[in-house]
Design goal:
29% helix; 21% strand
Length: 75
């Protein structure tokens, strides 16, 4: 399965510089890692564990959905 991931740079002071959040909006999951690739690896690990747990409990995980990103300016 291919799930969309949204990356967000973590604000200074929350974690050491260079860390990013990796959000999986379809599943409501968030993790973090060093750089985008570190966050992507952490998300992959989290998704694998989460999906294995769902399957072990006889649950059907939500199917991947289309993920769109936009911005809006606020004065």
């Amino acid at each position: 399965m291919t799930y969309g991931i949204l990356f967000e740079k973590i604000a200074p002071g929350e974690l050491p510089d260079g860390y990013y959040y990796a959000h999986v909006p379809t599943l409501g999951l968030t993790t973090h890692g060093l750089g985008v690739e570190g966050a992507r690896a952490a998300a992959r690990d989290l998704l694998q564990l989460w999906l294995e747990e769902k399957k072990a409990n006889g649950e059907t995980p939500p199917a991947p959905t289309e993920l769109l990103l936009s911005t809006v300016d606020v004065a």
